Amino acid sequence: MRRTAPAALLAALALAAPTLAACSSEPAAQPGAAAAEDPYAAAVSDPREDSLYPDVGDPGVDALHYDLDLAWDPDARELAATEVLTFRATTTAESFRLDLGEPLEVTAATLDGEPVDVAREGKDLVVGAPVEADARHELALDYAGTPQPVPAPSARDDIATTGWHTTPTGETWTMQEPYGAYSWYAVNDHPSDKAFYDVAVEVPSPWVGVSNGELVSRTEEAGTTRTQWHLEEPAASYLVTVATGELEVTEEVSAGGTPISYWTPPDLAPRRLANLRVAPDALTWLEERLGPYPFSTLGFVVVDGDSGMETQTMVTLGNDAYTTSEPVVVHEIAHHWYGNQVGPADWSEVWMNEGMTMYLQLAWEAEHGGRPLQEEMDEIAAGDAASRAYAGPPASFDPAAFGDGNIYYLPALMWHELRADLGEDAFWSMVRAWPAARDDVATDREDYWAWLEEETGTELTGFLEAWLLGERTPPVDAAG
User: Fold this and answer.
1) pLDDT by residue (tens digit) across 253-267?
2) What is the reported pLDDT for 477?
């Protein structure tokens, strides 16, 4: 996700600190894992109730595949959709529930081909049908309405709301971290539950709909453009994107052979498109440190927003100078290893995504004409106490301050300290090995910390607890 530029953010925290203080080893077994011929085996998850946002998501549902057919009418501001969800029940129950925004009305529902009753409890869609633990089912829904974004648990202006956004002229885009996918489809909206996606989008021509993965087809008929997208790797719901509008596509291929596409509005400033096209070189730089890119395609869609998001294989970027800058492009690509290939099973673990990608971004900047990395680290260290006082430690932050600088910069400084302790070879070997060790898995700090100790042969629990859970700044090595 996009974040404020380091110097500005840390200076702001340092100034605000007095006022704010006055105011206030092995991966887990995947249950029900099927035989290798099971096309959804990689999406079998161990869903959890979130420790910070327990009202979103249901651990009783393990989503395996979402098939979404979306038709957007920009004049009426209406979404008409058909959804088929293949899922595994994780418990035996008389009913199950999904998250679905209240403005969307379900007009038809079947479970395994039979009509089924659904009821609304706020944003919860309750399906009144019995399910048995580990059994697989297919839920089909027709629904329609005017999607509305949902309030975000954050003090950041650029993510005041999440989910589906509509511009004054009817274009749409989605960003939904830590939740908000439910604003436009019925979903188990939690990062512990990864699933496959097929998404079709219909919009009036010459507009086009963009989503994740490979563009399977694009057709135009009777004034309507229909695109079909296939995501061949499981994704968490917050990493799914849909954007509609008049978008032009530019295509190229990285040195390693990854197809890259840029979906941009016709009036995008040439400099911003040029910034996006650092992607092939950035991808090569990251592959040298992290290993082969873990997905088959990479894309970018520029929308009328103020933030940016590492949506899987199709990065969503707001149309401003910072969000379309080269450092942000590098940051969001890096998330495809840290966050997308391996991600958090609980939102208290978002530091796992953001700390390493921020460190990689700052390292890239230092090598490409930016400030020396140690100068950046010294500045972060100077602002560490203010950041902890305002938003909390990186792994025990204030739930109302999601996405603040503490989850980005403080873990980045932690990694820099560990790099000095371990040495270059051991540190970068560790950084490279982790995503591949937990490919397509959502995990937690206990698993990560145990793996780090085993991988490095070093006792790290005290170090990690101090940096990630401590209320005070840990000792920092002198600048060098």
Assistant:
1) 999 999 999 999 999
2) 77
DSSP string, 273-304: HHHHTTHHHHHHHHHHHH-S-SSS-EEEEEES
Cis peptide before 27 (omega within 30 of 0): no
Rounded Cα gap, residues 13 and 383, in angstroms: 7
Q: How many CA atoms lie within 13 A of 160 on its CB side?
A: 4
176: helix, strand or coil: coil
The answer to whether the beta carbons of residues 428 and 289 sit under 8 Å apart is: yes
- Pick left, alpha or beta for residue 145 (phi over 0 → left; psi -120 to 50 → alpha; otherwise beta): left
Query: pLDDT of 77-122, one tens digit each?
Result: 999 999 999 999 999 999 999 999 999 999 999 999 999 999 999 9
The answer to pTM > 0.70 is yes
- Is 475 among the domain residues? no
42 within some domain: no
Specify whether 214 is located in the same domain as 107.
yes
Q: Per the structure block, which two tokens stand in for 233?
A: 């790797």
| DSSP-derived 3-state class of residue 385 | helix
Q: Quick one: 280 exposed, middle or buried, by C-beta within 10 A (0-12, 13-18, 19+)? A: middle
Domain finish residue from 336, 356, 380:
336
Q: Which residues pair with 344 in a beta bridge?
A: 443
- Residue 262: exposed, middle, or buried by beta-carbon count in 10 A (0-12, 13-18, 19+)? buried
Q: What is the CA radius of gyration of the chain?
A: 22
Strands 259-264 and 298-303: parallel
Same domain for 53 and 172, yes or no, is yes
CATH of the domain at 398: 1.10.390.10
3-state secondary structure (DSSP) of residue 154: coil
**How many C-beta atoms lie closer than 10 Å to residue 368's C-beta?**
14
Cα–Cα distance measured from residue 374 to residue 379, given in angstroms and rounded to the nearest whole number: 9
Yes or no: say if 477 and 420 are a contact pair by the CB < 8 Å rule.
Answer: yes
Residue type, 464: L
Handedness of CA 151, 154, 160, 162 (dihedral sign): negative
Sheet holding 195-204, edge to edge: 114-115, 104-111, 136-145, 78-89, 61-73, 195-204, 224-235, 214-221
Rounded percentage of the chain residues whose pLDDT exceeds 90:
91
Residue 412 domain boundaries: 6-26+344-469
